[in-house]
Amino acid sequence: AHSNGQSGRLMKNNIKNIFWWSLVMCVSLLNAQSAVARDALTKQLILRMAGDSTRHAQSIRARQVLADVRLPDGTALHVVRRLSGDANEFVVRLPAAVSQEKAGEIARQIAADPGILSAEPDRRRYPALVPNDPGYLGSPPNFINQWNLFEDAGGIRMQEGWDLTTGSSAVTIALLDTGILEHRDLNPARIQDGYDFISDPDTANDGDGRDPDPTDAGDAVAADECSKGSPADDSSWHGLTVAGIMVAESDNNLDIAGIDFSANLLPVRVLGKCGGLVSDIVDAIRWSVGLHIDGVPDNPSPAKVVNLSLSGSGNCSSSEQRAINDAIKAGAVVVVAAGNENVDVATQSPANCDNVIVVGATNRSGSRASYTNFGEQIDLSAPGGESGDGLLTLSNNGQQDAGRDIVGVSIGTSYTTAQVSAVASLMFSLDATLTPDMVEGLLRQTTRAFPDSSCTTSSCGSGILDALAVLTGALDPVSILGATANTGKSSDGSGGGGGCSMSGNRSTDPFLLLLLFAGLAGITRRRLTEVIRNRS
């Protein structure tokens, strides 16, 4: 997932000898930002003197000026106290509170002194936020929970990440999928006016072609309807299930917790009965990031994150690649699922397109999920679950037309993609100036190592998504990325893919595959879904 160019924002971090009072001026501007940014301020550093200065260090007392260690403008630092455990380690006070990023910059400049072994900001820690949604930790009668967000083995450390940010309403996630349904655990105020880009009325299943209504009309099909020998299937309500992972209302004593508490969702309908057309999807990609499409009103809410939980076999087409490139140039990240066919991701599109962030799937123990596609073009993995240990999300109990709101269990790379998309939106809430290159680089370089050999960096990406680590990195990108934002892979392609098809070949749901292998042929997808809660 490679894109060219360097970030002007990162280049600023190469400037040497920044005067201290110019940093203080920057702090006054930061005070106008969100409460999250204010909470991240610090006015202390932790310094460790080099070993050859031990005798000198032992003579230093609290409130004493550290005369031989100064800020770039010459300002001396005051000692707060000696830190326990090491006679050479001290807490020192800055003249004024600064952001974590600025404190990190100052610490790096001080650490260049040969008398200083290390310097780092004295960061704050807070009580971990635990949402009160009953599905988060699990509640009677099933006690199934959102393990993917908090468990040590296979989770993404989202609970700790929420202590840095829970999101911003200034960020929009575009969901290119089957459309959207109303649900009791979705806030209508956060659902933007999307669009239905399906041009074929038969596929759309709503009586017409393109229109301003992205409501999911259902994608149930009869036997042989998509192609000769294709099975009958119930409506998937796939767009709703993906949306639930990302933006279900959190901490509201209802159903589940979405990853981003505040971001807006832009539903863009591109998949209907028997999948969707590439020509519709490429228009939808451009429109979702604010680019003009003839015959369609311009999108007033351009997305910073484009979620593509869809796939089809074959090479990345030139039209797909150009649309993705245009989205990147518009400043958006494009997140794509690796796919559920247990094949090399290089055979799946848009998984094999350049400039996309590709997400594979691990199970509850952190091992490779049996269904996930694999290969060198995967950027990272996230929990997608297996049969018996799926992911809680929002759904609907209607088999053909929409019925009642429910919470159900789903598995697949569609949902690993949703987790990465939502975490990317949280990254933008911390720093709206992050570039697509920087977001991808941070996601890749902050992952947790795979726990066993079932996944390697050549088959499942750099590791498992770590929300705390990547959000911490978003506060100080230079500490992770260095002086350049060009951290993507080579231009030979990167990809993703998901649980729905872009062409006539409808992609098989991995849950169905697992049960079919167990000898349960003939059961529809809706009946395979384990319904956790079915309240009116």
Short structural summary:
The chain has 536 residues and is α/β, with parallel strands linked by helices.
Which features characterize this protein?
single chain, 536 residues, alpha/beta, seven-stranded parallel β-sheet, five-stranded antiparallel β-sheet, 18 helices, 26% helix, elongated, disordered N terminus
The CA-CA distance between the termini, in Å, is 43 Å
Which percent range describes the beta-strand content? Answer: 15-25%
| Poorly predicted tracts of residues | 1-39, 53-57, 486-536
Largest sheet geometry:
7 strands, parallel
Q: Strand pairing plus helix content: what structural class? A: alpha/beta
What is the count of helical runs? 18
Fraction in helix: 25-40%
Description:
With 536 residues, this protein is of the alpha/beta class. The chain is 26% helix and 17% strand. Strands 7-8-6-9-11-13-14 form a 7-stranded parallel sheet, with helices on both faces. It has a 5-stranded antiparallel sheet with strand order 2-3-4-1-5. Helix 11 (278-288) runs parallel beside helix 12 (318-329) and helix 13 (413-430) packs parallel to helix 15 (467-475). Residues 1-39, 53-57 and 486-536 have low confidence and may be disordered.
